[in-house]
């Protein structure tokens, strides 16, 4: 199995080629595969949903969509209602079982600038939960309020760590359902 040609052929035969899953999802199910970028979706009710998605997360290991924590990553969030990322921002629902902070400071800075209504992520399974942050004028989290009133555009962000997998790799944490109004077209 040390032969690179054999490895490449084995990988292709076993897992397929890059882009095959995206093609299957798009043509057979109508699912939109989200690469890292800003999206706009016109909903059936005429409302416009603005979304930013990124699979990138800091890691010292290897694998897809990872970058070295010291090198950083540019998250170009542009006026999004919802931000969806793989991992959490620094300081928000990102503490591991070993009491280490695993969030990304570059992501936190980008979200603080953009101030979306919601930021949904996972990756740190043990920090599952939600946190409402009210931003002060300098885009620093000022306080957390658990009340259930409508979010104030540009001044509050609901952060949701939606990781459902528990410590034993089983889905033990319930899924989140979040509703909020969007501006009409």
Can you tell me about this structure?
With 185 residues, this protein is of the alpha/beta class. It folds into two domains: 33 residues, no CATH class; 128 residues, Purple Acid Phosphatase, chain A, domain 2. It is 17% helix and 23% strand. Strands 1-2-5-6-9-7-8 form a seven-stranded mixed beta sheet, with no helix packed on it. Strands 3-4 form a two-stranded parallel sheet. Strand 5, helix 3 and strand 6 form a beta-alpha-beta unit. The termini are far apart.
List keywords for this structure.
7-stranded mixed beta sheet, 3 helices, 2 domains, 185 residues, two-stranded parallel sheet, single chain, Purple Acid Phosphatase, chain A, domain 2, 23% strand, alpha/beta
Task: Summarize the amount of helix as a percent range.
Answer: 10-25%
Strand segment count: 9
Which segments are poorly predicted (pLDDT under 50) over 5 or more consecutive residues?
139-146
Write the CATH fold name of the largest domain. Answer: Purple Acid Phosphatase, chain A, domain 2
Q: What is the alpha-carbon Rg in Å?
A: 19 Å
CATH superfamily of the largest domain: Metallo-dependent phosphatases
Give the number of helices: 3
Question: Strand percentage, roughly?
Answer: 15-25%
Biggest β-sheet description = 7 strands, mixed
